[in-house]
Specification:
Blueprint (H helix, E strand, L loop, with lengths): L10 E5 L3 H10 L4 E3 L2 H7 L4 H12 L6 E4 L5 H15 L4 E6 L2 H12 L3 E7 L2 H10 L3 E5 H6 L4 H15 L4 E5 L4 H9 L4 E5 L2 H6 L2 H13 L4
Parallel strand pairs: 1-2, 1-8, 2-3, 3-4, 4-5, 5-6, 6-7, 7-8
Length: 227
């Protein structure tokens, strides 16, 4: 990850499995990764998640974007086997395996890292969970920003704490923020030092526009109307 001084530009990952959304966002050149989850895959492609993931890969392959795919089991003993199956079936170098955070799951993350998988430790709710994920070998540690706020955790402070700790450690693990509830949350976590934010499609147009921008453009257009 390229760093310039103490500042690293935050990346945007699209959180979607809908092909039309992925195509639309890729055309705008604004994302550097893609995240998926079992729930959205089941809704979009019931009974055929691997086929649908292959279609997604054909869209992201030319750009070599990292694609996070979550193991679809809660049994830690099966997670490594399922990760190996996903790697063999999808044949994509940018594949990132999502593993939820937990005591037994930390051993899964460490084993997958030894097997040279890229791992995204997801569903972290505290700064300590994220730091333990990084120590276990995760390439990404994902804080669930909205869910943290739901239970009274100061999510913004946790983002800042983890981002600062990772910078000091020099660890390659990147802090990812998910569970975004408002477009403004993206601005906030960027200000707090997050490396990556996963953004639902519906927020991206909002982030690219502003009423004052439209007002200024309208004024310029009016000024240059033919006499």
């Amino acid at each position: 990850m390229k760093r310039e001084g103490n500042w690293t530009p935050m990346k945007l990952f699209l959180d979607s499995v809908r092909l039309v959304e992925i195509r639309t966002v890729i055309a705008r050149g604004i994302i550097t990764g893609l995240t998926t989850n079992p729930t959205s895959l089941r809704e979009e492609a019931p009974g055929r998640p691997l086929d649908h993931l292959r279609r997604i890969i054909e869209l992201v392959r030319p750009l070599e974007l990292p694609l996070s795919v979550q193991v679809m089991t809660t049994e830690s003993g099966q997670m490594v086997r399922q990760a190996e199956t996903l790697r063999a079936e999808l044949e994509y170098e940018g594949l990132v395996i999502k593993v939820p955070c937990g005591w037994d799951e930390l051993a899964v993350i460490a084993e997958l890292a030894r097997r040279r998988f890229l791992v995204n430790c997801t569903a972290c709710m505290t700064a300590m969970q994220a730091m333990m994920a990084a120590a276990a070998g995760a390439r990404y540690a994902t804080l669930f920003y909205g869910k943290m706020s739901d239970v009274g955790i100061d999510a913004a402070a946790a983002v800042e704490e983890v981002a600062r700790a990772l910078r000091r450690s020099g660890d390659d693990c990147e802090l990812v923020i998910a569970s975004i509830r408002r477009a403004y949350d993206v601005h906030e976590v960027m200000r707090r030092g997050a490396h990556v934010t996963t953004v639902p499609y519906r927020f991206l147009p909002q982030l690219s526009e502003h009423p004052k921008t439209a007002e200024a453009v309208g004024a310029f257009a009016q000024s240059f109307q033919p006499v």
